[in-house]
Amino acid sequence: MKKMKRYKILIIFLIYMTYNEVSAQTIGTVPSKELNFREYLTRVGKNNLNYLAEQLNVDIAQAEIIAQKVLPDPDLEFEAADETFSLGLGYSLELGNKRRARVKLARSMAEYEKLSLEYYFQELRAESANLFLEAILQRELLHVKTDSYEYMRQLSHSDSLRFLSGEITENDVRQSRLEASALLNEVYEQEATYKSALAVLNQNMGATTDTLTVPAGTWEMLEREFDLSTLIKEGLEKRIDLLASEKGIEISTNEYKLTRAERRPDIGLSLSYERDWNGFLPPSRSLTGGISIPLKFSNINKGAVKAAKFRIEQSNIRKRDLALQVRTEISQAWYNFGYASALIELEKTCGIWDVEF
């Protein structure tokens, strides 16, 4: 009787484990394709929707340069009375090179937008690289958990045979079965995490999740050495955010020049022609011209000029602060890299790692 019970438990267990094995193999049937790191970054640069939207800022800034080149529009005036009518033309003549100052400021803004776009692209590439490595990490974790589950499944199968021969108890079989089931749940959870990481890769490339992108390649150990002083020097020369800060000083300077130019008065020129409506008698006609000069009493208030001058000083201070921040960030990254390299060497020396790179 006990032998029949053992056979019954064994059959139920085998059916259960077979179902779990099939389920583990068939979960997530979304089509996928492999993509190497270089091609992935290329697609991100070409198809990332946020990056494409940021590119339009440069086009907008270029259009603003054209818009600032416009000249003042003339005024056409017409007046009529019972016996006379007059036709006049007026024009506002800008002084102080206002148009030139506006165009120069718009060009500085356009160059700043180009630097901002390049900085955004660098940040996008860095984030994309992290997402690619994250997907590889989740894939490796999935392999580890799948192998653990497969080992426990085989162990449970072995325990069922040992139970059948009377070497272990029924509780031992149930315990191994529960452990295998728990590991299978972890496999399902990890597979969902892995597929979610792949979906983020698709989003970064501006693609839908109809076909998931699987990162091609494995972990590699790159032996590299860096010199702190060289890194700081290159950072101060090539960091895009620092170059953008320098362009910000130029923008503040051009804004100051434009503010001073706009304080110059504009001269109004006018020309009018007047005659009577009577066509039978000798017509009375006259041609008059005029000039108007506004009295800029408001220029006594120099608040706008002072504010523009303070912005230049503020931009210089922010540049110095950003240069200090660049030095600090590079130093911190160098220290962390040295710590991580030393930790890896220590673990390899102690024999903790048993992984082939």
Automatic annotation (TrEMBL):
Q: What are the protein's GO molecular function terms?
A: efflux transmembrane transporter activity
Any Pfam family hit: OEP
Q: Which UniProt keywords apply?
A: Signal
The transmembrane residues are: none
* Annotated signal peptide: 1-24
Q: Which family, according to the similarity comment? A: Belongs to the outer membrane factor (OMF) (TC 1.B.17) family.
The family database entries (PANTHER family) matched by this protein are listed as: BLR4935 PROTEIN, OUTER MEMBRANE CATION EFFLUX PROTEIN
This chain's protein is named TolC family protein
**Species lineage, top-down?**
Bacteria, Pseudomonadati, Bacteroidota, Bacteroidia, Bacteroidales
